[in-house]
Amino acid sequence: MKNEDIEAIKELLSTPKKIAIIPHRSPDGDAMGSTLGLYHFLLQLNHEPVVIAPNEFPEFLAWLPSSETVLIFEKDRELSTKALQEADVIFTLDFNALHRVGEMENILNKLEAPFIMIDHHQKPDDYAKYMYSDTSYGSTCEMLYHFIVFLGHKNLIDKTVATCIYTGIVTDSGSFRFPSTTSTTHRVVADLIDIGIENGEVHNALFDNNSYDRLRLLGQALQNLKLFPEYNTSYITLSQKEL
Question: Domains plus CATH for the chain?
Answer without folding.
Answer: 3-207 (3.90.1640.10), 211-243 (no CATH)
